[in-house]
Fold each of these.
Amino acid sequence: MADLYEQTYHKLRRLLAEQTGVPTSNISRASAFAEDFDTEPLELYEEVFPEIEEQFQIEIEPAHYRELTTVQDMVDYIVDKAEL
């Protein structure tokens, strides 16, 4: 189970680096989407989150957008959705 979280984290980190231009070395589990990525909320919801959905084959429900504030929140969400 720990491996799944670790794999998800590393894949998400690479994806976020590609989507936002932030180097992977600057992305940690505690990185906050609003403060640590140079993206507006609309850009995040319309461009980054859909790419996450596609890469991880999940659906991020809009009702959960505000709860997903850090990279670790997203990792937990992805792993939880993948286990269903």
Amino acid sequence: MKRAIMCAALGASMAMGVMTAARAEDGQMRVDLAGLNLDSTDGAKAALSRIHYSADVFCDDVAGRQSLEHQAAVRECVANMTRKSVDALHAPTVTALLQGRSTSEAPIAVAQK
């Protein structure tokens, strides 16, 4: 009986590992930026904070103690997902904040007729 329970637990943990790997390889995460003015400094800071938080949750699904290798992999994943999200957003102020520039250095779009 113990053997059947152990096999079921092992099978479940292996299935969870496969789902986590597929989720990480999928590389898609959703971030709610509704209601934020991405052209303002405050809105851009809020957006970047939400993106970073979502990337942290997306990349680190293990609670408790972690090996140094796992921590490094999570940091790299968070950096990559944050960069991908900001790139896809096409918001100059958010991009400037991510790159460590002040928002006054952000490119200004000029309207054309």
Amino acid sequence: MRIFHLLFVFVSCIAATSVYADCAPDSIGTIYCSKYPGGGAEADSIGTVYCGKGQCKADSIGTVYCSKTPGGGAGVDPIGTVRCTGGCERGSRDMCERAK
């Protein structure tokens, strides 16, 4: 029974880590995705999509920040600051590709 429990936990951890990149639409509906497996994509306050190595979020003024860690997480705290696994970096247009 204990082996089953450990196997369940292991499989759950793998399933929680996405190998797929996030995608997001820009202000005119064009979809952009991160070039990085597990990377993020998020639109800023004017609808421009920025991408990163990890998950991306927009802060309280619409600036996009992404986790520096490939596949890393990002979230916005109660005062609107983006916090990231392994630290944050500004999202980049160069890290995006247009979805086909």
